[in-house]
Structures are given as structure tokens and as C-alpha cells.
């Protein structure tokens, strides 16, 4: 029952917030999200890391005609993401400004999203996953459209339509799979070992890849991302980049790799190339940005590419790395968006040309800029921080299979360092113009989220076992059932074989 | 055959539910005359509601009876007809709840309104079970003529007049065309008027050209009733001009009756040309989904937007109809049931807003969240449900439809349905955005001067009840859809001719393999319906 | 006389009705065209009934119903035209343009 709690506690809590007096709203939301954070940690504590299969199973009949049953479970792939989700929900609520307009709706929607995203990560039924995947659509739309900054209306609509299209594609893939397989239910376990011919698998996998590719997003499906991330307020951007994008990568791993391993193996070289294009594109476009939030947004495009690379390589190490990268990227993006939001709130601008010398210990924002440096370093993959661990694992695992693509991705990491140096150099260092240096004070409680995140980043960077131990068994099992990937498999050969 | 014997053969018990409605109608009509118009507003709606509840109750009691043909084979009270009749009776029920205050505020007579609305209901309910051409025609016209009167009910309002005239002229012409098709059917079958006898007679004949002409005329008549593109031109005008509760009834009750007619007439009388009519309906479904959903984007009036949205929704329902499988019919009827609640819920909200502010322009809804959270919540949920957002009922309705369509191999239709659903989300969310997202300073003038919420005036309580009932049904009918769907499925399984319609189909065909030639063999393997 | 003659007459009447429906500007004339349509159906039904169904004469019974319903339809139609005439002082179809056609 503990898994259901993770879903229903926040959702019912969101409804219950309607009855809470406005003074205690934030407290109530914090308590609710804090308790699901503890719940997810408790699951991690109970989790058997040697066991590769789904644990904590829950299975209730629901709509049998549709093959939609209430089936939940958690494994090494979803567990880190669950914790990421509950952690970032708590931080998003904590870091939302005191003066948030319409707080009741805001906290309600955030909690609703938390429940729905947990549901999507936990669902062991394809249709149930789709249901949860679609539920977060409207709350996110409202969160962007109401509490966003300039161009919020346009950005929110763009987000909504892209996500709806992605949902439609995924639905087609799921329905197509169940129908072709002749299964009478959408249960994941019943479909995992499907025996479809390769060409059918390839078509379905294409739908899955494009559908989730919009969500991740991968170039060239990413055009909604900069607008949306920039328009969203800092806590929402955190959730968008930290959690929602992970729904895409999780979906690609669970429903692309997990359901169509053979087709995945065939497409792997193409996927690795696609990932490389994403990485290089994200990094180069980020270098050209003048707006720090936009820069961080584009950095996300690049970093999601590593995850796909790790998945494409399909070695044990690369997969562990990819899962670790999902978690690490969630933390890093969250801290970056949080700090950028802080800078914007205090200084009043995000323009690289205007910002200067925030490191100034007296009149600047010394701690914020110090943590920004830490976040940038983590993002660029400096050893000792969590970003390094996951990227190193991905590269180490992928190099043997896709040397060229991996090398180009390493170049991408170098480019990441370039734009973060630009960002840090312009904003944190240099001379602070005394005329504008009249910033409001950063209070201690405002520092808490960034401190928690940076301590986690530091801790997992120094103690990487804690990052990868959860998923090792599951990813190991994933690789074990797969055919080995070789560079020589091409589409033409597949068609010959048919 | 003496009279007593004849009376026992009529099997009149099958139409007890209709009898209850007719009785109510008479009570309302005579009671209003006897007690005067002034007091009528206080009791007639409640009598009508009681009568409809009684009728639905009687329908439930008939569920377990073995279906028999009554009135010498003119009326079939099988489970399918029971479900469809209940849908029509329920839609009238909710329409009454929302109309009391509206008619009262417009200063028209409520008793007469109830009488005409109940006659329309009787017509629709009879249509659901009609199995004989005369019966079909008379009940269809009862429904139609009552609808014309309802449309023109605001007789001092030139827009209502104009809408009524347009509806009447187009409606009468289309029913004449439909009737011409029926007369051809009568001739082709060699003088049979019962649908099953017609099917038997036609099975022996080879005159497919004549049958096709009859089919085209009949489909034109039906498409007018369900407002399928390209027979939809009346819809936006009539919806805009007619009183809003009438629009609600037309978009749900009348449309359900049209689909009931389509199911019965086409599957039973035209099994010989099943591919042709499924092909025509596929085209109608595609056009309706595309045009309805695309044109709705451009609308500025809420009623007009819902008019186009209802055209698009009819397109979704037609997916279930054209695939011709049991699951298809079941999901289609289930969607009609869900659509009843969500669409009537949306109309209840629009009426409430119009009563308080006197407008139904979408832009006037700006900032409503601040003034009336309940209305905002209800309207948002109903619209999102129409757009198919989980976990609301519309999502499950669409999943049932699309899943049934996919299983029958109609990939093209399902994918088009998904694409147009995404489009529809755009215009539904636009209204939600207007109400929820707008800042207080962007509030429209009418919302700025929004009156204090007051549920006490005459007719406001029923409106509130209607609002809550539809809201709750829209929220949970999907999640708890298992028993409902099983019910509908049972109703469909027991109808024999729905299976015969599917006999000629091959499930694996993806594209039309051969074009059926004329005259086509009775059972052919070609499949022109599944896109 | 063969059955075809009656059917041709009915078809011709139907076409005239459709033509009148499309071209008339006066609302009453449109209503009359609808009546023409219904009457063509009546000819059809009676002819079929006479040639094919002498036993039950279902078609003739049907015709009686059609005539009755047509009368009701005409009554409602004229009532609506009357109402619109009171409000607008015209029954010209071209003038009814409050709603987008």
C-alpha cells in the first residue's frame, strides 16, 4: 500500500488544501510534501537492492474491458526518480515565495503534479502510465500560465500542445503494441517479452521515441523548451526540468528499451548519433545565449542527450550511468534554476551583459554565487561532484560501443564548461557596479533549498555508490536479456533478414 | 381476431415508460390550464421531473424482462432501446433542471415549455425502439416538430425566431428527403414496412442501385439529425439563436435519438449494403471531426463554440458506429452516456453565467475565478472532460472508443480522432484560461460587476442540483465506468442484427482492398470501411 | 399504366420541390416547396402500395400519417413565420441575417 500512498496522499492533500486557512497553507503543503518525501525514503530503505524485479507490487482489478488495471510497482529504474520527484516537490514548495498569488491553487497544483508523476513512475500498466502522464498536463499548463513571467500564455499553450501530441503518439504506440501482440491487457509484464516481428517493433518504437522525445526533449523536438522553461517561475522550472523531463527519459527506457529490446538494438547507432546531435546542439546554442535562464534551459537539452547515449550503448555500465545521470541532472538543473531565480529576484535581471560581480562579499550575493559556481561545475562534470560520476559512467560504458559518438559527447561536456565559464565569469566575477548594488538581503531560510541540493550533489559526488547501488541490479537484468549491440547492425541488414 | 385477443397481442406494457411521460405531459398541460399560468411555474417542472424519474424507474424494471416486439412488431423494447431511451429521458431531466430559471427570467410560460419538451422526449424515446417505417417517421417528426417549437420559444426575440425558421425549413426538407428514402425502401422490399421483413425481402433482390439511392436519402436524413458534416450548417445558427436549455437538449437528447435511429435503421434494414453505409459514415466521421474541431477554434461565442464542438464530438461517436463491432457499438453508447453529463454540465454552467451576467461571449468570462470559484471549477471540469483529459469521464469514453476502433483495424480514424482531440484541447483550455489564468486587473466588465451569488430565487435550486449532479457524474463516471460499460455491453450483445452487420468484415484489413462493385455479393471479403 | 410512370411523376415533383426550396425568397413559398416534397413521397407510397402491397395497403396507411404530420409541420411553420413577421415585418429569406447563415 505504500506506493499508493505516494500517489494518493498528495492528490487528496491537494483537494484538502481547499479547507486549510490561508495562513497555514504553505505549512500544510510543506508537511504533505515532506511526508511523501519521507515515504519515498522509507521505500528506498525497504528496497532490496539485489533484487532486479519489480518490488512492492500492487494489483487491483479496475476496468477489465480495457485491460486497464491498477498495477503499481517499483524497481531500480524508477526508485531514484521517485525520490527525485518527492525531493524536488518539497523544495519547489519550500522555495516558492511567501507572496505567491493564489497560494491555494498553486500548492494544490504542485501536489497534484507530484502525485501524478509518482503514479507515472510507479505504473506497471501501460494505460495507467498514460493516464498519469496526461493528468499532469493541465496543472502544469496552469502553473506556467498563471505564475509565469513574460510570454507565459504563449509558452504555456505551446507546452500543452506539444505534450498533448506526445501523449497521442505514445497512446498509438501502446494500443498498437497490445493489439499486435493480441494481449487482453495493458499490463507491463504481459507485454515485456513480446514476440513481434522486427519491423512492427521498429514502427512502434519510432512512435515511442518521438512521443517521449518531445517530452525529454531531444533536438529537433525541443522548440517548446526554451520558451516554457524561461516563462515558468523558478520552482516550476525546477519541476519541469528536474522531474517532468525525466518522465520522458524514463518512458524511453521503460517502454522503448524495455518493450522493444530487439528494435532498440537495431536503432542503437542511430540513437547514439541522435543523442550526440542533441548534446552538441544544446551546448553550442547555450553558448550563444544572453539570458542566464535560457542558457540553463539549453544546457538541459544537452544533458538529456547523455542519458540517451547511455541507453543506446546498452552496456551495463552505460545504463547505470544513464540512470544516475537522470538523478544527477534533476538535482543540478533544480539548483541552477533555483539560483538563477534567486539572482533574478534579488538583482532584477537575467541579462548576462548587465549582471556583474555578484561574488562581492559585502554588497553582492556571495553565497548564491558560490553555489552557482558549484552548480555550474557539477553540470560541466567536474570530478568530486555528482555530474562527473554519472557522465563518466556513461562515457566509460559507451566508448567501447560507440567511440566516435562518445568522443563527440565528451567534446560536448567541454562546451558545457565553456558556457558555464562564460556565465560564471560574467555574473559572479568582475567589478560590481556600486550604483545598482542595492540588493535585498538573502535570508537564511531562502538559502535552505540550495544548501540541501548542493550538499546532496557534493555527497553523491564523493560517495557514488549511494547513487548507483539502487539501479545496478535492474539495469543488469535489462542488459542480460538483450542481444549485444554491434556497430554493424544496420537497417538494411534487418530488412534483408526479414 | 377479436378485440381482446388483439389487445393482448399488442404487448402494450413495453411502452409503459413512454406512457408515464405522456401522462405527465397531459397533467402538466391540463393542470396549467385549470390552475392558471401564474402558479404553473411553481409546480409543473417538478411534476415533469417526477414523471421522467418514474419513466426511468420503469425502464430499469424492464431491464430483466425478455425483450418482445410489441404493437405487432412496430416497437422493440430490447435492452439497447432501454439504454437509449434512458439516455434521452435523463437528458430531458437535466434540461428541465437548468431551464426553469431561464424560462422564468425570460418571462415565458413554463408549463407550455415543459409540455413541448416532454413531447419531444416522447418522440425521441419512441424513435429508440421503432422498428417499422411509419412508426419511425411519426416519432421522428414528433421529436422534430417539438424541437422547432422549442427553438422559437422566445417569441419576442428575433434571433430565436430566425433560428426556428431556419431549423424548421432545413429540418422539414431533410425529413422529406429521409421520407423519400423510406418510400423507396418500401417499394424495393415489395411492400414491407417492418425493418426485419425489409431486410429479408432485400436479401433476395438484386436491385442494389435502387437500394443505394434509398440509402443515400436515408443517411441524409439521419445525418441532419446528428449534425454530421456536411449536413451541419443549421447547427451553429440554431444553437446561437435558440434558448440555451433547448440547445442543451438538441445537442444531447436529439442527437442520441438520431444515433438510435441510425443504429436501428442502418444495421437492420441495410445489411446488404453494409460496406457502403459504413464507408459513407466513415467519410462523415472524418469530416465532422476535422471541421467541427477546427472551426470551433475560431468562435467567440460560447454557444457557437459548443455547437461546433458537438459536431466534433458526434464525429468521435461515429467512430464507434462505423467500425461495426460489438465493442464499437457499446463504446459508442457509453460515450453518448458520458457525453450527456459533460455536455449538459457545460450548458448548465453557461446558463448560470448568462443568468447572472446576460452574456455568453467567451471573452466575458475573463477572471471569473475570483468571483465564482464553483462555476469556474464546474465549467473547467466539464470542458476538460469534453477535451478528454484524465481522470475525467470523457477521457475514458474516448479510450473505449479508440480502443474499439483500433481493435477493428480503423487505424486512420483513431489517429485522426487523437489528432482532433489534441486540437479540441486547445479551444477548451482557452475558456479555462480565460476564467482561471486572467489576473484580477484583466477582469471583464460583467465579471467585475458580478452579482452576489444567490441560490434562493425560483428555479435556482434545481439549477444548483443539476450543476452538482453533472459535475459529480463527469468527475467519477469514468473512474467507476466498469459497471456502466458492462451494462451497455450487455445491451449490445443481446441485439442479433448488430452481429450480422459485422459478419462481412475481416479484421486484419488496413486499407480498402477492393472497391465493392455493384451489384456486390451479399457477403464479400472486401473491406471498404476500415481506413 | 405501369408503376414507372407514377415513380417518374413523384421524382419530378420531388425535383421541383427541391428547386423551389433552393430558389424561393419568400418563406411561405419555401414551406410550400416542402409540401411538394412530401406529396411526391405520398405518390410514391400510394403507387407502391397499389402495385406491390394490395393485401395490407401499408403504403396508404403510411400516406395518411404523412399527410397528418405534414399538416402539423405546416401549422408550426406558419406559426413561426407569423411570429417572425410580427417582429420583423417581412418574410423575405434574404432579410433574415441576424445569424450567420
TrEMBL record, chain B:
One of its GO terms (cellular component) is endomembrane system. Pfam families: Ndh2_N, Proton_antipo_M. Its EC number is 7.1.1.-. Residues 130-424 form the NADH:quinone oxidoreductase/Mrp antiporter transmembrane domain. GO terms for molecular function: NADH dehydrogenase (ubiquinone) activity; oxidoreductase activity, acting on NAD(P)H, quinone or similar compound as acceptor; quinone binding. InterPro entries: NADH-Q_OxRdtase_suN/2, ND/Mrp_TM, Ndh2_N. The keyword Translocase applies. NCBIfam families: NDH_I_N, PRK02504.1. Belongs to the complex I subunit 2 family. NDH-1 shuttles electrons from an unknown electron donor, via FMN and iron-sulfur (Fe-S) centers, to quinones in the respiratory and/or the photosynthetic chain. The immediate electron acceptor for the enzyme in this species is believed to be plastoquinone. Couples the redox reaction to proton translocation, and thus conserves the redox energy in a proton gradient. Cyanobacterial NDH-1 also plays a role in inorganic carbon-concentration. NDH-1 can be composed of about 15 different subunits; different subcomplexes with different compositions have been identified which probably have different functions. This is NAD(P)H-quinone oxidoreductase subunit 2. It comes from Petrachloros mirabilis ULC683. The gene is ndhB.
Automatic annotation (TrEMBL), chain C:
Signal peptide: none annotated. GO terms for biological process: ATP synthesis coupled electron transport; photosynthesis, light reaction. It is found in: Cellular thylakoid membrane; Membrane. The keyword Iron-sulfur does not apply. It comes from the Bacteria. It is an enzyme of class 7 (translocase). Its EC number is 7.1.1.-. GO terms for cellular component: NADH dehydrogenase complex; plasma membrane-derived thylakoid membrane. The chain crosses the membrane at residues 30-52, 64-85. NCBIfam families: PRK05715.1-2, PRK05715.1-3, PRK05715.1-4, PRK05715.1-5. NDH-1 shuttles electrons from an unknown electron donor, via FMN and iron-sulfur (Fe-S) centers, to quinones in the respiratory and/or the photosynthetic chain. The immediate electron acceptor for the enzyme in this species is believed to be plastoquinone. Couples the redox reaction to proton translocation, and thus conserves the redox energy in a proton gradient. Cyanobacterial NDH-1 also plays a role in inorganic carbon-concentration. Belongs to the complex I subunit 4L family. This is NAD(P)H-quinone oxidoreductase subunit 4L.
Amino acid at each position: 500500500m505504500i506506493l499508493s500512498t505516494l500517489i494518493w496522499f498528495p492528490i487528496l492533500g491537494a483537494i484538502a488544501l481547499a479547507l486549510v486557512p490561508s495562513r497555514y497553507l504553505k505549512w500544510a503543503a510543506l508537511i504533505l510534501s515532506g511526508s511523501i518525501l519521507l515515504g519515498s525514503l522509507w521505500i528506498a530503505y525497504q528496497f532490496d537492492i539485489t533484487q532486479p524485479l519489480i518490488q512492492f507490487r500492487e494489483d487491483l482489478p479496475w476496468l477489465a474491458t480495457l485491460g486497464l488495471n491498477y498495477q503499481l510497482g517499483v524497481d531500480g529504474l524508477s526508485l531514484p526518480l521517485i525520490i527525485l520527484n518527492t525531493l524536488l516537490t518539497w523544495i519547489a514548495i519550500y522555495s516558492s515565495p511567501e507572496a505567491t498569488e493564489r497560494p491555494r491553487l498553486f500548492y494544490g497544483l504542485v501536489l497534484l503534479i507530484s502525485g501524478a508523476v509518482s503514479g507515472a513512475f510507479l505504473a506497471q500498466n501501460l494505460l495507467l502510465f498514460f493516464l498519469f502522464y496526461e493528468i499532469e498536463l493541465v496543472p502544469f499548463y496552469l502553473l506556467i500560465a498563471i505564475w509565469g513571467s513574460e510570454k507565459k500564455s504563449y509558452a504555456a499553450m505551446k507546452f500543452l500542445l506539444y505534450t498533448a501530441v506526445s501523449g497521442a503518439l505514445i497512446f498509438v504506440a501502446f494500443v498498437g503494441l497490445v493489439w499486435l501482440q493480441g494481449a487482453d491487457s495493458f499490463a507491463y509484464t504481459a507485454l515485456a517479452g513480446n514476440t513481434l516481428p522486427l519491423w512492427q517493433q521498429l514502427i512502434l518504437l519510432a512512435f515511442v521515441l518521438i512521443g517521449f522525445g518531445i517530452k525529454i526533449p531531444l533536438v529537433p523536438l525541443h522548440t517548446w523548451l526554451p520558451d516554457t522553461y524561461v516563462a515558468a517561475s523558478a520552482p516550476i522550472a525546477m519541476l519541469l526540468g528536474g522531474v517532468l523531463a525525466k518522465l520522458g527519459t524514463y518512458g524511453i527506457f521503460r517502454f522503448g528499451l524495455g518493450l522493444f529490446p530487439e528494435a532498440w538494438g537495431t536503432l542503437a547507432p542511430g540513437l547514439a548519433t541522435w543523442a550526440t546531435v542533441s548534446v552538441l546542439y544544446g551546448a553550442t546554442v547555450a553558448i550563444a545565449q544572453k539570458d542566464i535562464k535560457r542558457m540553463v534551459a539549453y544546457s538541459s537539452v544537452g544533458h538529456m542527450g547523455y542519458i540517451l547515449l547511455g541507453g543506446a550503448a546498452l552496456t551495463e555500465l552505460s545504463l547505470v550511468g544513464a540512470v544516475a545521470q537522470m538523478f544527477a541532472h534533476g538535482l543540478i538543473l533544480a539548483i541552477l534554476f533555483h539560483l538563477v531565480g534567486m539572482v533574478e529576484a534579488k538583482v532584477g535581471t537575467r541579462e548576462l551583459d548587465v549582471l556583474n560581480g555578484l561574488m562581492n562579499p559585502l554588497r553582492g550575493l556571495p553565497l548564491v554565487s558560490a553555489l552557482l559556481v558549484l552548480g555550474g561545475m557539477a553540470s560541466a562534470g567536474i570530478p568530486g561532484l555528482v555530474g562527473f560520476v554519472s557522465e563518466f559512467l556513461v562515457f566509460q560504458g559507451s566508448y567501447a560501443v560507440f567511440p566516435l559518438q562518445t568522443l563527440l559527447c565528451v567534446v560536448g561536456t567541454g562546451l558545457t564548461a565553456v558556457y558555464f565559464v562564460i556565465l560564471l565569469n560574467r555574473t559572479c566575477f568582475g567589478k560590481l557596479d556600486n550604483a545598482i548594488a542595492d540588493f535585498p538581503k538573502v535570508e537564511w531560510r531562502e538559502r535552505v533549498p540550495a544548501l540541501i541540493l548542493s550538499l546532496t550533489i557534493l555527497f553523491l559526488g564523493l560517495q557514488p555508490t549511494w547513487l548507483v547501488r539502487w539501479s545496478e541490479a535492474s539495469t543488469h537484468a535489462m542488459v542480460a536479456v538483450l542481444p549485444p549491440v554491434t556497430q554493424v547492425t544496420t537497417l538494411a541488414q534487418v530488412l534483408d533478414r526479414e | 381476431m377479436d378485440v381482446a385477443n388483439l389487445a393482448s397481442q399488442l404487448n402494450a406494457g413495453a411502452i409503459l415508460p413512454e406512457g408515464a411521460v405522456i401522462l405527465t405531459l397531459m397533467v402538466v398541460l391540463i393542470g396549467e390550464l385549470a390552475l392558471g399560468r401564474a402558479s404553473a411555474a411553481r409546480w409543473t417542472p417538478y411534476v415533469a421531473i417526477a414523471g421522467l424519474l418514474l419513466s426511468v424507474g420503469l425502464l430499469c424494471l424492464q431491464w430483466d424482462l425478455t425483450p418482445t416486439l410489441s404493437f405487432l412488431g412496430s416497437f422493440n423494447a430490447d435492452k439497447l432501446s432501454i439504454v437509449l431511451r434512458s439516455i434521452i429521458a435523463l437528458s430531458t431531466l437535466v434540461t428541465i433542471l437548468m431551464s426553469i430559471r431561464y424560462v422564468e427570467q425570460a418571462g415565458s410560460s413554463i408549463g407550455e415549455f415543459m409540455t413541448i419538451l416532454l413531447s419531444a422526449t416522447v418522440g425521441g424515446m419512441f424513435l429508440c425502439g421503432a422498428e417499422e417505417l411509419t412508426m419511425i417517421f411519426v416519432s421522428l417528426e414528433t421529436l422534430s416538430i417539438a424541437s422547432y417549437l422549442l427553438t422559437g420559444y422566445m417569441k419576442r426575440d428575433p434571433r430565436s425566431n430566425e433560428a426556428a425558421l431556419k431549423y424548421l425549413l432545413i429540418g422539414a426538407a431533410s425529413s422529406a428527403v429521409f421520407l423519400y428514402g423510406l418510400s423507396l425502401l418500401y417499394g424495393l422490399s415489395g411492400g414491407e414496412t417492418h425493418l426485419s421483413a425489409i431486410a429479408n425481402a432485400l436479401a433476395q433482390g438484386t436491385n442494389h442501385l435502387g437500394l443505394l439511392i434509398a440509402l443515400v436519402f436515408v443517411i441524409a436524413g439521419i445525418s441532419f439529425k446528428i449534425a454530421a458534416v456536411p449536413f451541419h450548417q443549421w447547427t451553429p445558427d440554431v444553437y446561437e439563436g435558440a434558448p440555451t436549455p433547448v440547445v442543451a437538449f438538441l445537442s444531447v437528447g436529439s442527437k442520441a435519438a438520431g444515433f438510435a435511429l441510425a443504429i436501428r435503421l442502418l444495421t437492420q434494414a441495410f445489411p446488404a449494403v453494409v460496406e457502403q453505409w459504413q464507408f459513407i459514415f466513415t467519410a462523415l466521421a472524418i469530416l465532422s471531426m476535422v471541421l467541427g474541431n477546427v472551426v470551433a477554434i475560431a468562435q467567440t461565442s460560447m454557444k457557437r463554440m459548443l455547437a461546433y464542438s458537438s459536431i466534433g464530438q458526434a464525429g468521435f461517436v461515429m467512430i464507434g458506429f462505423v467500425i461495426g463491432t460489438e465493442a464499437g457499438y457499446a463504446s459508442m453508447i457509453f460515450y453518448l452516456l458520458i457525453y450527456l453529463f459533460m455536455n449538459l454540465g457545460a450548458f448548465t454552467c453557461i446558463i448560470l453565467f448568462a443568468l447572472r451576467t446576460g452574456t455568453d461571449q467567451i471573452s466575458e468570462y475573463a477572471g471569473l475565478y475570483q468571483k465564482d470559484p464553483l462555476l469556474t471549477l464546474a465549467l473547467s471540469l466539464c470542458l476538460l472532460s469534453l477535451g478528454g483529459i484524465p481522470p475525467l469521464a470523457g477521457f475514458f469514453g474516448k479510450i473505449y472508443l479508440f480502443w474499439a476502433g483500433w481493435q477493428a483495424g480503423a487505424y486512420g480514424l483513431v489517429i485522426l480522432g487523437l489528432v482532433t482531440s489534441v486540437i479540441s484541447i486547445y479551444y477548451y483550455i482557452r475558456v479555462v484560461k480565460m476564467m482561471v489564468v486572467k489576473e484580477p486587473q484583466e477582469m471583464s466588465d460583467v465579471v467585475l460587476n458580478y452579482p452576489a451569488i444567490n441560490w434562493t430565487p425560483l428555479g435556482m435550486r434545481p439549477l444548483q442540483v443539476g450543476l452538482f449532479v453533472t459535475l459529480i457524474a463527469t468527475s467519477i463516471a469514468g473512474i467507476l465506468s466498469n459497471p456502466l460499460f458492462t451494462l451497455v455491453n450487455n445491451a449490445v450483445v443481446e441485439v442479433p442484427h448488430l452481429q450480422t452487420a459485422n459478419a462481412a468484415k475481416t479484421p486484419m484489413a488496413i486499407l480498402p482492398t477492393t472497391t465493392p462493385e455493384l451489384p456486390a455479393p451479399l457477403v464479400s471479403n472486401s473491406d471498404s470501411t476500415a481506413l | 399504366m405501369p408503376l414507372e410512370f407514377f415513380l417518374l411523376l413523384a421524382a419530378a415533383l420531388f425535383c421541383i420541390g427541391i428547386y423551389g426550396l433552393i430558389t424561393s425568397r419568400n418563406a411561405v413559398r419555401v414551406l410550400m416547396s416542402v409540401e411538394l416534397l412530401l406529396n411526391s413521397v405520398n405518390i410514391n407510397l400510394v403507387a407502391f402500395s397499389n402495385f406491390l402491397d394490395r393485401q395490407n395497403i401499408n403504403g396508404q396507411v403510411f400516406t395518411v400519417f404523412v399527410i397528418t404530420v405534414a399538416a402539423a409541420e405546416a401549422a408550426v411553420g406558419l406559426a413561426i413565420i407569423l411570429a417572425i413577421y410580427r417582429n420583423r415585418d417581412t418574410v423575405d429569406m434574404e432579410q433574415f441575417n441576424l445569424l450567420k447563415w
